[in-house]
Amino acid sequence: MTHSVHPYSFRIGILRDWKSRWFQHKNFAKFLKEDVEMREWLMKKLRASLVSGVEIERSRNTVVIYIKTPRPGLLIGRGGEGIEKLKKEIQKKMNFKDLKVTIEEVRNPYADAHVVARLVTQDLEKRLPFRRVLKSYIEKVMNSGSAKGVRIEVAGRLDGAEMGRREWLRKGLIPLQTLRADVDFARDRAALPYGTVGVTVWIYRGEVFDKENEKEKLEK
Question: 214: helix, coil or strand?
Fold first, then answer.
């Protein structure tokens, strides 16, 4: 019987890094709970900004939050007003003494699974036909220049049907069992009047080799 493995956790230490980078013996459970609550709160609050991910680094006295988005101007605001307001809200919610918030731009949004999943849910919430949405975003991902394969799956009461079902479209390659394959993965949910529809996105961006192996190949 097969077991499904999360594509991100499957590649941690090989192609991916931890989303929370710190270590603490005494307050490990407390810090972990804070990170999970803060990440969920930020992803929900900044939903319109198409946030791709939230990474957290902690030192002895400082907490640094990295927010990745293809729309950095919306978060930063005029003269940095938006980021200062967000920083105050985080400090009020989490009681951090020394906090730094850094905005990182996602330069190719159609090669990012989280951004694509959020765009698909937005179109589904606008009541667009799901097959048209899937086809359009699969073409946009493949035309982005960075993707070699994409699969988008939706599940639920599609188009208001009485019974839930699962539909998906794929183009190109999705090598899920290859560790050196750079497969980006994301899940999201569209809130519709007849229930929620789950959206799952896989984007394959090619294989990643060690620099030493690449040098040996070039020398040969």
Answer: helix
> Which is it for strands 165-172 and 149-156: parallel, antiparallel or unpaired?
antiparallel
pLDDT digits (tens, 9 = 90+) for 37-47: 999 999 999 98
Q: Residue 87 CB: number of other CB atoms within 10 A?
A: 16
Tokens of 28: 């490990």
Three-state DSSP state, 59: coil
pLDDT digits (tens, 9 = 90+) for 63-116: 999 999 999 988 888 888 889 999 999 988 888 888 999 999 999 999 999 999
| Sign, CA torsion 188/103/13/178 | positive
Rounded CA gap, 22 and 27, in Å?
Answer: 11
* Domains of the chain, each with CATH number or no CATH: 9-105 (3.30.300.20), 109-207 (3.30.1140.32)
Residue-level length of the chain:
220
